[in-house]
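dumping this here so i dont lose it again. seq + smiles for zinc ion
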Amino acid sequence: MSDPFARAAAAGIHRLAIPTPFAVGRVNVYLIEDDPLTLFDAGPNSGTSFDELQRGLESLGHALEDIELLVLTHQHIDHLGLVGLVASRSGAEVAALDAAVPFVERFTEEAQADDDFARDLMLRHGIPEDVVSALQAVSSAFRAWGARADVTRVLHHGDRLQLRDRALDVFHRPGHSPTDTVFLDAERRILIAADHLLAQISSNPLITRPRDGSIGRPRALMTYLDSLRATHEMEVELVLPGHGDPITDHRALIDERFRMHRRRAEKLHGLIEERPRSAYELAQALWGNIAVTQAYLTLSEVLGHTDILLDEGRAREVEDSGVVRFDAVA
Ligand SMILES: [Zn+2]
């Protein structure tokens, strides 16, 4: 069996699959053997993950202390958690997109503010109080897998990260999170994309608290679809994702994602044509009884699609006693 990451390895990019406690399974971090020796993401903050990261680096002939540059792809804790520890052990620079810096540097406070935002959003969209409280307890327990880090090198959309043997162009691709960043090696046509595009599962367009002071609910799925359109245009032969196997035909995969989201929006439209429903009721109609840990993911997914219908003028929001229901517009 051929190694799906062989082509990346031939370009000096090595995938290490680091364990996480989350449903998504292992997270891919990438070591680029170049000058500086560069690691993209680090894994969640746990002893097991740290041990495996160290062993993985050693199997490639490097010590953790040799890492000189750590690059963060986005703010999620399965990617971010170990960044601070690896940086303090190695003295590596930490590079992250400008939009991610406040979150990374003030992780605990920011994560708490995100949870408060999520709580209000869940209640407003019909998720029962006991489910919301249970999920908040899970979320604060999970916070231990994240940790703050100092960003020493701030990246901007359009920047170029120059290593000795390659240049990586930096692009902001918000949607899955507000800070998703992809890195393009235009010469080799390789894109380090993290969770912006995954082969086996569609990236969840998580609704995340806006940090720019804007009010109202961010339209995460619509933002994400715009980002996918931009990536569709890129000349790329190999996409290295944050979970699972690499992608060799990004345009076909993105087209498939567009079709899936269109189908789902139409399905929701059918459901609200029957009668007005809250996002929680729509999630139940789509997926049945949802595990508590999945409540926010499925809410984000549903609201992403109702946003499309609202944008097209085919749905409207009706608020009653603080709970929003979606109604079809004839
Ligand atoms: Zn993520």
